[in-house]
């Protein structure tokens, strides 16, 4: 029973906080006025993509927590989560694309480290992070391109 309550807590926390931060840090007119890179996706894509990714991130965090809340993998999961939650306010509220680029590259490094730490220990948790790593790699391209173009 504790296992499933843990999963519910991870899902509620990651989805709840992630969607709250997204809803309270909207791109707005500032972002609309920026010159965009060639591969910028339509705005409607971000909500379903992040909802899906947050479910996967929560599952990976829950599985890693079950293996040990003091493990390097779980601490790395927390590090990437804090960076994830920091990015939107820095970019969309503070309009700081340079700091956003630093944050997203640090987030990508933490995601890749999480993959390395979990790949042999919990392949399911690691596989949950593969789409996330791909999306953040693409998001880093967007962030750095926005910084360069503007």
TrEMBL record:
Q: Where are the transmembrane segments?
A: 44-62, 74-92, 98-117, 124-144
Task: Note whether Nucleotidyltransferase occurs among the keywords.
Answer: no
User: Keyword set for this entry?
Assistant: Membrane, Transmembrane, Transmembrane helix
Presence of keyword DNA repair: no
Protein origin, superkingdom = Bacteria
Q: Name one Pfam family in it.
A: TspO_MBR
Localization, UniProt = Membrane
Q: What is its main location?
A: membrane
| Family annotation (InterPro entries) | TspO/MBR-related_sf, TspO_MBR
**What does the record say about its membrane topology?**
Multi-pass membrane protein
Q: Per the similarity annotation, which family is this?
A: Belongs to the TspO/BZRP family.
Record's protein name:
Tryptophan-rich sensory protein
Taxonomy of the source species? Bacteria, Pseudomonadati, Pseudomonadota, Alphaproteobacteria, Hyphomicrobiales
